[in-house]
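Researcher: First entry.
Model:
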Amino acid sequence: MTQLPSSFLWGAATAPHQVEGNNVSSDWWALEQQVPGMERSGDAVDHYHRYAEDMRLLAEAGLNSYRFGIEWARVEPVPGEFSRAELAHYRRMIDTALDLGLTPVITLHHFTNPRWFSWFNEDAQQRFGAYVRLAATILDGVEWICTMNEPNMFALMLSMSKMAQNKTPQEWMSPTVEGAARPLLPDPDPEIGARLVEAHHAAREILREHTGAKVGWTVACQALTARPGCDEKLREVRYVREDLYLRGSRGDDFIGVQSYSSQEVDEDGVVPHPLGPDNTQTGNAYRPDALGIAVRHAWEETGHTPILVTENGIATPDDARRITYTTGALEGLFAAMDDGIDVRGYLHWTLLDNFEWGHWEPKFGLIAVDRETFERTPKPSLAWLGEVAKRGLL
């Protein structure tokens, strides 16, 4: 097996809105108050105040990296007025990670926007660029920056908003009960995707000018495969759902691959996840092999851009199943590396059981959280992943 370098990143990831709590200036907070039946983030898991404890648990387990985000809605709650206190807060988070020996991987946009902002406004790219330029002032010593999280999924949300459909993005992305099938997602609008690619490229140039970090973005990689005779349909579907964004990463310093499951494509398009007892809490099929499929495709589609696995995990209350799933995912990842694919790290989703975009039931975390007391309880999977990281072997 390929010998992993000492610089290989082993860690976990979070998203600000899902863990911080009381993100009252964001569009998602507003949405939670309006949509009937949607659970609310509220205090979330109070990571905003408890980040040092959470990072310490990660480091003490033997992991060396932590991906977390800066929340734009906190930094710029009203147009053009930036909070120096919030910037200082995120700088303290960066310093805490560095002091604990954790390499920070910073995400600047993870689905949420300030309430006042719209990507459909003519000045959207300029507004985003101004935020990125200010965020860059606190990123000294940061080696990895993701401009946006899953722009293909975000383009889907924007597409649905543009079409003014009755269903919200959260309804399309709703978790289902264990064993049920996940609803099939529609295709994002390629024109919106192209706009996000432009915004990413502009942000990349700002960050390269003002920081010494490696810059990229993360893409939701669905590990799509073709049924017999459906190769052309696969190319068509994969372009609008994934490849447009992977190609947008050509010229980046890395591509963040995010993979959870796999689906087939037939002559009608993407085949829904089958019903079955193995389905995860989000309705995905149990497919640990998806990560290897996704990494191999991203490597080719980006023109051999170095890969950082920025999310991979499973929604399950059964932690032994989490370890089994992650073992299979890492086997596929290591096999891809043995075949010469340049992979720089593996960041598990997620560090903490958290708010899953309108729902609290799905359990992705390596650490359980009591939502009444906020007590943290590391799961066996955290110690297991730490041991894998220390050995560099399964």
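Researcher: Second entry.
Model:
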Amino acid sequence: MDPADDGGRDVVWLRGITPRGSRRAEPLTLARIVAVAVAELDVHGAERLTMRRLAQRLEVTSTALYWHVATKDDLLDLALDEVLGEVPIPDADDPRAAVRALLGDWRAVLLAHPWSPALLGRPLLGPNMLARTEFLQATLTRAGLAGRDLAAAGSLLSQFVIGAAVTESTWRRAQDPTALSRVQEYLAARADLYPTLDGSGFVERSRWTEDELFALGLDRVLDTVLA
């Protein structure tokens, strides 16, 4: 991948740089910066994160912060890979069980950090993400997939978990507990136009939880991928 292909955006993983260290001794480290950035993102989201706000929270100057992280985009890349490192790599021998565990935990981690799904359109080349993608691909290979089938299966499974996390986090961030109920009421009032959506409980979560729907959907995808 060429950095120029990313809409002109540069990313820390493609640049191949090591974040700079300070020339003078100070208690500020890249690990501490990233950890505090994740905490800040969990509270305020990516839109409100600024290098200045982060420097204040770290009780350092912005200049000291820039010795370690060159740009806000670099910081977002580092923070995203940091939270993806929370996804455990399964030790299950059975490929289906291993993939199911990996993707279930991946979704859970993304939902625990509501800002993270929106950043998944960025190149995911951090070491934590690559390690989990390598595990997924290796597990699918062990299950007998190769070539185009392997590429299609990996893409499908990744899109499934990312799509689920983006949709769920978007609903949750709306902070309107009545939103789904109002959608269901809208469909019920127009049952002549949308009889299947009304009858199936399209968004009626009193019938099934998001966890149940994700698990069942993932099983259906795995039935096809690992057939």
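Model: Note on the second entry: The chain has eleven helices and no strands.
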